[in-house]
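FORM 7B: Structural annotation worksheet

SECTION A. Query
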Amino acid sequence: MFRALALALTDLGRGRILVIMLQAIAISILIFVLMAGILIWLLTGSDPCALGGMGSCPVGVGGSTIGAISLTLLAAWFLFPAVALTVIATFTDRIAAAVEQQHYPGPAETARPVGLGRGLLLGLKSAGRLILFNLVALPFYVLLLITGVGPFILFVIVNGIAFGRDVAEIAAARHGDPSSRRAWLKATRGQQHSIGVLISALLLVPVVNLLAPVLGAAAGIHLFNGSFWSKAGH
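SECTION B. Predicted structure
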């Protein structure tokens, strides 16, 4: 696990990975900017007082902008891991090719490209799992608010379990057959969770959180290639 993370960290400075990371960051930010724009459009002219039977207080552009930004920031904290993972999954082939050609030339030659469609499907599946886990944990987030740090610790645990599994699944998608991939995912569950928890902790750190998803994807690729082929007899 530590080897996978150390190698992934060095990969972040490589040109191909750096370009992919910047593109993924830009797309993720654009998604939340579009979300804010849609919320401003929806909130402008709305009348929350009328809905509550308390007269009329239509929301102007200024109020809708403040409300939209506040809601977007809240959504970003809750949804960023899912959005980032979906974006990263669409770059699966490019990230894996960059990492494998540098460190694992043999497996790189026999890899079967995931493709944009399957990568997006993997990303959406993973995003759905992350959102579901967080929705189940939502009442506990609220209860733990009184502790101050409780919600952050729970965020790291919940997202770590899901995120670790997801980056490992994405990493394994280009190799082997379904049964061998399932066996590997089961055998390395502890290492997946460890990587996921660390990446989830990094998601709480401003600026660093933008780099964390690509770091996690690269670590998953190193974890897979560092253990799968030895077990497979290659």
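SECTION C. Observations
Residues 2-13+80-232 form one domain. The radius of gyration is 20 Å.

SECTION D. Sign-off
Analyst initials: ____
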